[in-house]
Write a structure and sequence with these properties.
- By secondary structure, this protein is mainly alpha-helical.
- Helix content is 93%, strand content 0%.
- The chain has 2 helices and no strands.
- The longest helix has 87 residues.
């Protein structure tokens, strides 16, 4: 790699942002499934209350409803398990991208620090040389500045 990691850092930041967006989308899907679960539970409670209030009128349709409810509940539970696995995978990918970004940033900071130290050393050498020249001139001229 060259002396400058700024381009790599910029790309790594973009990757981290993309991973965050992807995780956000998966978390939103998880939230939607949880809401759907809550909705079918509330709907079941309502249907059950209706069935208790009029057991004769609901009768045969209650069994069909319960079968549909159980199938939908199981389907949502499977979807939620799958989405939660995806959330975990997305979090791991995001963490890895973030670690990579931090490694690049630390490497660039170390390079910047070494470059600044080298610049300071060169400036100090130049100042020392100027001071030596001034002292030499004083000695040669035998007087003051």
């Amino acid at each position: 790699m060259g002396k400058d990691l700024h381009t790599v850092i910029r790309l790594a930041k973009y990757e981290v942002d993309e991973k965050r967006r992807a995780l956000g989308e998966i978390l939103e899907r998880e939230h939607q499934i949880e809401q759907a679960q809550a909705h079918i539970e509330a709907q079941r409670d309502h249907e059950e209350a209706t069935a208790r209030a009029d057991p004769v009128g609901v009768g045969m349709s209650w069994g069909n409803y319960v079968r549909r409810y159980m199938a939908e509940r199981d389907n949502l539970a499977a979807m939620l398990a799958s989405v939660r696995e995806a959330v975990e995978a997305a979090r791991e990918e995001l963490a890895e991208s973030y670690r990579r970004l931090k490694t690049y940033e630390q490497a660039q900071a170390a390079r910047d620090r070494r470059a600044q130290e080298e610049l300071n050393r060169k400036e100090q050498t130049a100042l020392d040389e100027m001071a030596q020249n001034m002292v030499r001139r004083r000695g040669e001229g035998g007087g003051t500045l």
